[in-house]
Write a structure and sequence with these properties.
The protein is α+β, with helices and mostly antiparallel strands. About 30% of the residues lie in helices and about 25% in strands. The protein is built from 10 helices and 16 strands. It starts with 11 loop residues before the first strand and ends in a 23-residue tail after the last strand.
Length: about 350
């Protein structure tokens, strides 16, 4: 393709990122905040049933929300600042990890992708190669070699112990690392999505944008006996999610899956799914799920939220409204102003 044929894609966030899906850890509740008056009308009666029944407790909740709203308003700018400082001062322990190599990938995963790239590949033929969990349309397969996972863990711990600035992965996880800020997007996760994961999701989730995943958010989350133990029931800001267990030694902490988020919890039967080191669980982003508490050790998970602008441009999956776009950094939240972004070549720098 000639240079003049390459079109750069600008990605955006939906303005609901500022106001919606704010998680109150103490009350295991997602809320929307536009104003104090709106919030009191919408949530004060519910919070009282959850033992938030004094004005002081309610004020504490309001302060927590205002801090989170402020963090979100400043997120793009502060993330860009962190990325610049990290690039300037952080010395990687294993710099070779920042560019994807086939040797990092599990042989069975490569075999699965080779099948997906065949002209006669079919969904049924692919399903014969995968391990399907009891939860509908949740698939398990090895992704990385153990040696790669061990080196990546060493790199992440080296970064965690460094003086470089760090941002929390999302509103629900307090401990982890945003991998785009560390410099993994361009050389690692973009080719992983485009060359390996999209052929797979094209066959498994054509009805969920699997054929046109054009951006992602990659991060790791950490569970530890002295930090986050579990993760409450939720859905992802993604069309398709890959969740890979990197290690370390831990007990319990299984994932559990319910149904697509439009189905009420009272009509849902949850299914537990075991996490195994080096293996990934692939599922629809709107599939409700959570993580049970670990009972010992420490667990790190690699999460890749894959987005299809073709789908989310029509309806934001987080607020169920036509998205109102706000400029963001890098892949932002995967929205574009193009009607068919899958035909464009992404050249964002992250």
């Amino acid at each position: 393709m000639d240079d003049e044929d390459v079109k750069c894609v600008q990605f955006y966030i939906c303005d609901c990122f500022i106001t919606d899906n704010i998680f109150l850890q103490k009350y295991k509740l997602h809320v929307r905040f536009v104003s104090e008056q709106q919030f009191r009308l919408d949530y004060e009666p519910l919070l009282r049933t959850l033992s938030c029944d004094t004005e002081q407790q309610f004020t504490e909740v309001l302060n927590e929300i205002l801090q989170e709203v402020d963090r979100r308003r400043r997120f793009s700018a502060t993330s860009a600042e962190r990325s610049a400082v990290i690039k300037d001062i952080y010395q990687p322990l294993h710099p070779q990890l920042y560019c994807l190599q086939e040797s990092y990938l599990a042989p069975k995963f490569k075999k699965i992708i080779e099948y997906c790239q065949r002209s006669d590949a079919s969904q049924q033929g692919l399903l014969d190669l995968l391990e399907e969990e009891a939860a509908p349309r949740v698939y398990r397969f090895p992704v990385f070699e153990r040696g790669f996972c061990e080196q990546l863990m060493e790199e992440l711990e080296n970064f965690e112990q460094s003086s470089a600035p760090k941002g929390r992965p999302n509103t629900m996880n307090h401990y982890g690392i945003l991998l785009n800020e560390l410099g993994f997007d361009e050389g690692f996760f973009t080719p992983l999505r485009e060359q390996y994961l999209r052929p797979l999701t094209s066959l498994l989730y054509p009805d969920w944008g699997g054929r046109c995943l054009d951006s992602h958010k990659a991060f790791v989350v950490k569970y530890d006996m002295n930090e986050d133990l579990d993760l409450s029931y939720h859905y992802d800001n993604a069309e398709v999610t890959l969740n890979v267990s990197l290690g370390k030694d831990f007990t319990d902490g299984n994932l559990y899956f319910g149904d697509i988020r439009q189905i009420p919890l009272c009509e849902t039967e949850c299914v537990e799914v075991e996490h195994r080191m080096t293996e990934g669980l692939l599922h629809r982003g709107q599939h409700m799920h959570g993580a049970l508490p670990i009972s010992s050790g420490q667990r790190w998970n690699l999460i890749i939220w894959m987005r299809a602008s073709q789908e989310r441009n029509k309806l934001c999956p987080m607020c169920d409204r036509k998205p109102t776009l706000v400029e963001g950094m890098g892949f932002a939240d995967g929205f574009t102003k193009h009607s068919d972004a899958s035909t464009l070549v992404s050249c964002v720098l992250t």
